[in-house]
Amino acid sequence: MLRMSKMTDYGIVLLAELARAGSGTRTAKELSACTQVPLPSVSKVLKGLHGAGLLVSHRGASGGYGLARPPEAIPLTEIITALEGPVSFTECGAHGTPEAGGTCELETVCRVRGHWRIINRTLQDALGRLSLADLCGPVGRLVTLSTPAPAPVPLPSTVRGNPS
To answer: I want to staple 82 with a disulfide (CB 3.0 to 4.6 A). Which of 21, 52, 91, 150 is the partner?
Structure first.
């Protein structure tokens, strides 16, 4: 099964809550209370998101965390990459990226690598078209991004020798 880690899921929930807060800030304790994400997890995820440049932190009595950019300017791929690493279905898809460094040890003999690169690129493109703002909006926005179902295969014009 392919899935994001629980911490990445928490990170998206926390960012969505900060997006709803607008330009204000929230403390880790406030975010934990309103999202029901355990405080130790909130603190860990906020640290990672801050380190990736997605959040700004403010010290002091009215301090807390806020978004570094508007929600429309934060692509889902950037969030996932900050918490999981490069977005990829396969190791070779991640290893072939400049930021990951290195290449797959089977590169010289692999006959499906090119196909997986196309699939990985499609996944990255699809997630890159979604922003944090999209995740905070109505679900209908996401439905419009789904790919259409394949067209049904036409039946032959004759069935068991009876022309139609």
So the answer is: 52
Fill in the DSSP letter of residue 56: E
**Whole-angstrom Cα distance, residue 30 to residue 82?**
22
Q: Which residues of 86-99 are buried (b: 16+ CB within 10 A; e: fewer)?
A: bbbebebbbbbbee
Could you give the percent of the chain with pLDDT greater than 90? 46
Sequence-ordered list of residues with C-beta below 8 angstroms from that of 71, at least 6 positions apart, any chain: 15, 19, 131, 132, 133, 136
Quick check: helix, strand or coil at residue 11? helix
pLDDT (tens digit per residue) in 54-65: 999 988 877 899
Burial 115-130 (b: 16+ CB within 10 A, else e): ebbeebeebbeebeeb
